[in-house]
Task: inverse folding
């Protein structure tokens, strides 16, 4: 059995995020759409959809849906769009790096802000299992 990578990311999206992307994220969160959003190299990865929706209940149990997305208002208060990804998948094609390269252009965060982590279930090169922290890059 191949080893799994757990990805956790929780971010607010910028106010100028395209409406089409917000709609697409809502569809994916509802389990309705797995078509590529655009031509970014992330969507050329064989398992791009599993980076967003992958779940492996045996080796990496995840509580709740792997992708959650919210936008709109509550009791008259406008909410910032929030994306949470908590998935587990076989990471073969650089999906994590490609996903981060794609999504961070829409993230409302300052360089260096903590966004989440990735965790390879058996570590790398004999090292103990340690998370790789994900921070907002400088653009």
Result:
């Amino acid at each position: 059995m191949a080893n799994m990578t757990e990805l956790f990311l929780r971010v607010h999206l910028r106010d100028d995020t395209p409406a089409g992307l917000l709609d697409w994220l809502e569809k994916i969160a509802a389990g309705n759409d797995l078509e590529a959003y655009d031509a970014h190299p992330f969507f050329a990865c064989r398992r791009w959809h599993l980076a967003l929706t992958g779940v492996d209940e045996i080796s990496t149990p995840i509580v709740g849906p792997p992708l959650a997305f919210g936008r709109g208002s509550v009791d008259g208060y406008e909410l910032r769009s929030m994306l949470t990804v908590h998935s587990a998948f076989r990471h073969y094609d650089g999906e994590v790096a490609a996903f981060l390269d794609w999504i961070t252009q829409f993230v409302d965060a300052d360089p260096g802000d903590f966004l989440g982590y990735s965790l390879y279930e058996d570590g790398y090169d004999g090292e103990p299992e340690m998370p790789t922290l994900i921070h907002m890059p400088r653009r």
Q: What stands out?
A: The two ends are 38 Å apart (CA to CA).
